[in-house]
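Slide 14.
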Amino acid sequence: MFLHPHFFPFMFFGPFFLVFGILGFLVFALPIMEVIHKAGYSRVWILLWFVPLVNIVFLWIFAFSRWPSQNKV
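Slide 15: predicted structure.
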């Protein structure tokens, strides 16, 4: 099978990058999910953090809107 020279390094480092990608997701996504949940929103909103530019807009809306957990008090 012919492999393009640009893809050759990924044969060896693919699993390495996959493991660190999953680890990076867990290190950053889990605390963000907990903050979102404590604010009264669903944890599914974490998916917006992976959409470029939407994550910035979401951060501003999230920071300055009235949280559902504040309405309960």
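Speaker note: Residues 8-38 form the longest helix (31 residues).
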